[in-house]
Each structure stands twice: as structure tokens, then as C-alpha cells.
User: What shape does this take?
Amino acid sequence: MSDRLELSDDALMQAGHTLVVASYVMTHDNVHRPTGLLASVSGVGPQLDRYLRGLAVARAALADAARTASEGVAAVMSESTELDSFIAVHLGQGFALKKGKG
Assistant: This one.
């Protein structure tokens, strides 16, 4: 098993896209909870209402977490690109060939 994590730009782009789509689906395309108190013979309506409100809060929290994670993925990709550019500019040509003496 590898001792380090390697992520390709394609994998990061796909992860970011998937997180954005998941966030959108959770906040826009999911079925909303029923409004009003649910009638029940056993009297569990208030408990069901609290449970459904909790699900709505959890869904919103997951959507927010997915959005935040996608922003993190975008930041990692940006920093990786900047680092690659920095190394390419500051590492002289032939460095590897001269065993670090160039």
C-alpha cells in the first residue's frame, strides 16, 4: 500500500463537481417536509414533525458541508497549480542532471 496520497487533477475536478451537484440536489431537488402538523391516531404527530424538521436541518448542513468541501478541493487545485508554476520558474534547467549543483 502506498505511503502517500496522490490525487490527479482530473480526480480533484470530478470530486469538486460531484460535491457541487450533491449540494445543489440537497438544497433544491429534494422533497420538502410536509407543512403543518401531521394527524395521527396514536398522537405521534408532534414527534414526527420534530423528526422531519431535524432531517431538513441535517440536509441543509450536509449541503453546506458539500459546498465547503468543493471550495476546499478548488483551493487545493489552485495551490497545486501555483506551486507547480513556482517550482518550474525557480528551479533552474539541468538541476536534476547536475545532481542539485546547478
